Amino acid sequence: MPTGKNIYFASDMHLGIGAQTSAREREDKVVRWLDMIKDDVAELFLVGDVFDFWFEYKTVVPKGYIRFLGKLAQLTDAGVKLYMFKGNHDMWMFDYFENELNATIIPNEFTFERNGKSFYLHHGDGLGPGDKKYKFLKKIFRSKLCQWAFARLHPNFGIGIAGAWSHKSKVTNARIGEKKLHPQEWIELYSKEVLQTRHYDYMIYGHRHRPMDKPLINNTRYINLGDWIYNFSYAVFDGVKLELKYFEKAKDGVPEWSSVI
User: Fold this and answer.
1) Residue 19 to residues 10, 197, 200: CA-CA distances in angstroms?
2) At 245, phi and psi to the nearest 5?
3) How far apart are the C-alpha atoms of 149 and 4, rounded to whole Å?
4) Within 10 Å of residue 148's Cβ, how many Cβ atoms?
5) Does the pLDDT value for residue 230 go beyond 80?
6) Core vs surface per residue 222-259: b (16+ CB within 10 A) or e
7) What are phi and psi of 109, to 5 degrees?
8) Is the pLDDT reported for residue 60 higher than 50?
């Protein structure tokens, strides 16, 4: 890790949907953040659900995101190492970002060490107990057969179906969000199970849209990166310590969680 350079982590931007701000305003905010960190970033981890939907046909990708993708290209052309995780909304990333941005695509978990600190990263979907319906659907959606079948659809039709599915997911999860959560998050329970066999200094996730930084066991810290819909939160490791930060704090009266999971 170069001296004076940092590692940045962010997730759940859900580019392409309109939430508290318009999709364009949110994209502009992400671009301003990337511009802010450009001089001191060595590695950038985008930990899933960067897009609200993504599918790569052989010669077609979803339109939009020009400013965001252009800024990523600027960073990677300058030598920044980019990692992009498959989330539950953008699990159909194949080789487009590898070819265009020299990105490393991470389908599941990813572990690494920097400056004597160990990291465990995962988007966070389908981990821990419960959520059996989604775990079943995830296996189907990630299957080669399902991807092949979807690729046979015309993009206008296929992306239209995906948009309707995404809306249904948001409505369903809004209802779930009204219920009292288990005192211990499923991802937290999963993390403690992993720690039974190996120690990590930091276990970093997205998916839940709730910024969290809390101790687990044996000095491990559980970090949830939050989102870029309400919280505009991210984490940065400077080679010595890791901090959870906010590019722009949530406005008064806006909850620090979102139903878009």
Assistant:
1) 18, 40, 35
2) -130, 170
3) 47
4) 9
5) yes
6) bbbbbbbbbbbbbbbbebeebebeebeebeeeeebbbb
7) -85, 160
8) yes
Q: Which sign does the torsion angle of CA 198, 203, 208, 213 carry?
A: positive
pLDDT of 231 strictly over 80: yes
Query: What residues make up the domain containing 37?
Result: 6-246
Total domains, the chain: 1
* DSSP 8-state secondary structure symbol assigned to residue 70: H
Is 139 domain-assigned? yes
What percent of the chain is modeled with pLDDT above 90?
A: 46
CATH number of domain containing 67: 3.60.21.10
DSSP character at residue 221: E
| Residue 148 tokens, joined | 């092949």
Q: Which tens digits make up the pLDDT trace of 85-126? A: 988 877 677 888 899 999 999 988 999 999 999 999 999 887
Q: Please give the single-letter amino acid code of residue 227.
A: D
Beta bridge mates, 205: 122, 224
Over residues 190-200, the pLDDT tens digits come to: 999 999 999 99
Asked if residue 120 belongs to a domain, the reply is yes
A 10 A CB-CB count for 219 gives 9
Query: Does residue 127 sit within a domain?
Result: yes
- Which of helix, strand or coil describes residue 21? coil
Tokens of 112: 């690494």
**Taking a C-beta distance cutoff of 8 angstroms, is the pair 177, 257 a contact?**
yes
Tokens at residue 102, please? Answer: 């020299």
Residues 201-217 pLDDT 10s: 999 999 888 899 999 99
- What would the pLDDT profile of 155-191 be if each residue is shown by its tens digit? 655 565 565 555 555 433 433 333 444 545 788 999 9
Q: Could you give phi then psi for residue 169, rounded to 5 degrees?
A: -60, -40
